[in-house]
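Example for tutorial group B:
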């Protein structure tokens, strides 16, 4: 059950809202358990292990969808590539943290649990900042029409994510 929650959390982080809002969109894992010892610091995104196949597929799908919706041009590809690399790095780092937490949850005491959860929240914040910085450069290169499309897309997705979810 925890593994499916883990997979849903990672998928939600990647898919629910514009990638720029990963930290705000992810459904956090409720504090229920954490490692017996404090978890090591988050792996820097550039050296993060490869994400799971499911996470990688979700990221790739999101990248293709955004590229199509924004109409990224050949001239914009270097900035687009930097943005998509940040997306991939963030997914890998987040996936690694969730996997680490899932492997240790059975032995966590309450303080360890809270520290593990805090580590994930910090990673989301740091990852989102890196993603926002990469997006700033890309957004500056967009045409007015592309910017309008990005603004509309991100507003719609943020509004959808803000809607209350039905309880299971």
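The residue assignment follows.
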């Amino acid at each position: 059950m925890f593994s499916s929650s883990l997979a849903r959390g990672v998928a939600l982080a990647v898919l629910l809202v514009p990638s720029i809002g990963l930290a705000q969109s992810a459904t956090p894992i409720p504090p229920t358990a954490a490692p017996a010892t404090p978890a090591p610091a988050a792996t820097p995104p550039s050296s993060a292990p490869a994400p799971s196949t499911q996470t990688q597929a979700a990221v790739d799908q999101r990248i293709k969808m955004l590229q199509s919706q924004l109409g990224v041009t050949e001239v914009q590809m270097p900035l687009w590539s930097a943005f998509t690399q940040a997306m991939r790095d963030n997914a890998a780092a987040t996936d690694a943290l969730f996997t680490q937490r899932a492997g240790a949850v059975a032995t966590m005491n309450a303080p360890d649990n809270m520290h593990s959860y805090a580590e994930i929240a910090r990673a989301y914040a740091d990852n989102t900042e890196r993603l926002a910085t990469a997006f700033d450069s890309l957004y500056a290169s967009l045409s007015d029409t592309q910017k309008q499309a990005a603004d509309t897309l991100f507003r719609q997705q943020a509004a959808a994510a803000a809607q209350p979810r039905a309880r299971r």
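DSSP finds six helices and no strands in the chain. Compare this with the pattern of hydrophobic and polar residues in the output above.
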